């Protein structure tokens, strides 16, 4: 397939880098300020070298990437809230041109799911978005395989940064602020960690899971969200005395979506460590399925993107 | 889809029972001695009532089921070794009639994978077999999504009976014989538990995983197998003193397939409890994925069968 990759952050770069190994051709690659377009295939190595150099991927305008020849648009620009722009506009443009869309950007399917599906119904293109929920973990494809109507609930640890912080706080008895600073030094937390530690990122994933399980109708505003910023070390100590720990758990059950710190047994399957994620699916006839792995990272998320591209082939 | 279901054990019965909920019609249902065939749809409830009564599902000959009108054959007769008959013959007949095949029976793809694939290449029908490896756990569909060439190894606890026995031996310090007898009372182990406790069942699953990962070439004879029948409680006690336990682990790595008792840390993801199964996939770009859940059971395995049927639709 010919891929137009929008976004040259960790995920977009990894998709571009791995595409040829998967038998695909990158015909356009864009970041927010520049693009490179070549119907015969972009020189990805050169574009990524240039990105590391002057910060641009080429001489073209970002808008040129959307006008390129491609079969599937890989939307990997940063997730935005509310109107989910510019990602949503990219999705619309691709579907109106009867092209497929593979999302790594959570915004369009977390905030404007019903509109995305309406555009898809009018298009010859399809929209897939495995990468938007827990990176490499095959959560959405497993739900699709089971049939969403036979998944009665989903629960999970959906944010690696928050989980790293909780794991370290529990293991070392350190304060939230101390561990956050350590996580920032390690590159596990961003300079502005708000999205992760206040639960927004996990809540977007819950909105997407709720949309998939219930056929739409959810956005971030429908998710009850509580983060981990106010969690005192004493809460973790109390939990530990009882053989428990605290995890930032996202849940979709009975039509309700919520994210918040929850007490879980220390040895529970849900109590994954460090930056690991887990998704638990409650099924109608097959009990509980646990899917865990790396929920973020460039190559990990790109793996989910490229699996979606293969499903479209 | 119209389904011909061969085998009326726990899995075949569950497939027949759930088929209508999934939008499918059972046009034939057979056990080893009888069958019921109706091109308009078998009365499944009546057939299963009759099975509970006199042990037959209908008045027809089992061979009539293969001659029925159907789109997909569900092969759920007992797994057999070596020539994998009569399952292999059923697969051949369906593919030669250009019909799809969904296997719950491990024999054909564990023992005669290359022949099954050769028949499939000549047929308009496809062969799927998610249910043959760890029941409801989406191991094969996850490998298909990643691309088998990007899965560098697979490892897992693939037999619930053996795992139940090891879990109980470790928790209670009981002997193998004692726990086996308890498992038989609970219906977790069969009267003849050989297949499970000597590792054969797990080894068949390893042969299937090896075939999928390496494009064929494996049968049971290619798997190095050691069971749990000779494991003394003292081995589990020694392991526990070191924070470890013993699991019957099946592995496919570097082209080698093997099954045997392995020491694993007590809190390790691999150390699932009771009758749970787990499959760990090592991926090229996305690290390790853990997939766990119920590896056996009628409705659980039927869920995997019916997910395969949906993939063919």
Rg over alpha carbons of chain A: 20 Å
Provide the CATH topology of the largest domain in chain A: Dihydrodipicolinate Reductase, domain 2
What is the total tally of β strands of chain A? 12
Number of domains of chain A: 2
Biggest sheet strand line-up of chain A: 3-2-1-4-5-6
Largest sheet of chain A: 6 strands, mixed
Distance between the termini of chain A: 7 Å
**Element string of chain A (H = helix, E = strand):** EHEEHHEHEHHEHEHHHHEHEEEEH
Strand content of chain A: 15-25%
Label the CATH architecture of the largest domain in chain A: 2-Layer Sandwich
CATH superfamily of the largest domain in chain A: Dihydrodipicolinate Reductase, domain 2
Estimate the global geometry of chain A from the Cα principal axes: globular
Helix run count of chain A: 13
Largest interface, chains and sizes: A-B, 35 and 35 residues
Q: What is the quaternary state of this protein?
A: homodimer
- Classify the helix fraction of chain A into a percent range: 25-40%
Report the CATH C-level class of the largest domain in chain A: Alpha Beta
Q: Provide the structure class of chain A.
A: alpha/beta
- Mean pLDDT value of chain A: 96
């Amino acid at each position: 397939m010919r891929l137009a990759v929008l976004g040259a952050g960790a995920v977009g770069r990894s998709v571009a880098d791995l595409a040829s190994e998967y038998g695909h051709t990158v015909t356009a690659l864009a970041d927010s300020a520049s693009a490179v377009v070549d119907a015969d295939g972009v020189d990805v190595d050169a574009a990524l070298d240039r990105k590391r150099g002057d910060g641009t991927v080429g001489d073209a305008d970002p808008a040129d990437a959307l006008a390129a020849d491609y079969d599937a648009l890989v939307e990997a620009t940063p997730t935005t809230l509310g109107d989910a722009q510019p990602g949503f506009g990219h999705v619309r443009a691709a579907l109106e041109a009867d092209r497929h869309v593979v999302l790594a950007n959570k915004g369009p399917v977390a905030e404007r799911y019903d509109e995305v599906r309406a555009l898809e119904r009018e298009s010859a293109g399809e929209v897939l978005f495995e990468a938007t929920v827990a990176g490499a973990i095959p959560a959405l494809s497993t739900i699709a395989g089971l049939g969403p109507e036979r998944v009665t609930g989903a629960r999970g640890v959906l944010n690696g940064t928050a989980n790293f912080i909780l794991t370290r706080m529990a293991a070392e008895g350190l304060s939230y602020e101390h561990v956050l600073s350590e996580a920032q030094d390690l590159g596990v937390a961003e300079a502005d960690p708000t999205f992760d530690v206040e639960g927004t990122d996990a809540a977007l994933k819950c909105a997407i899971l709720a949309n998939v399980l219930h056929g739409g109708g959810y956005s971030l505003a429908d998710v009850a969200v509580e983060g981990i910023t106010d969690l005192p070390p004493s809460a973790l100590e109390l939990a530990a005395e009882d053989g428990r720990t605290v995890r930032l758990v996202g849940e979709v059950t009975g039509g309700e979506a919520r994210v918040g710190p929850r007490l879980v047994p220390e040895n529970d399957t849900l109590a994954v460590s460090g930056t690991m994620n887990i998704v638990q699916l409650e099924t109608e006839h097959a009990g509980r399925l646990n899917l865990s792995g790396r929920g973020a990272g460039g190559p990990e998320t790109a793996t989910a993107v490229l699996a979606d591209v293969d499903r479209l082939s």
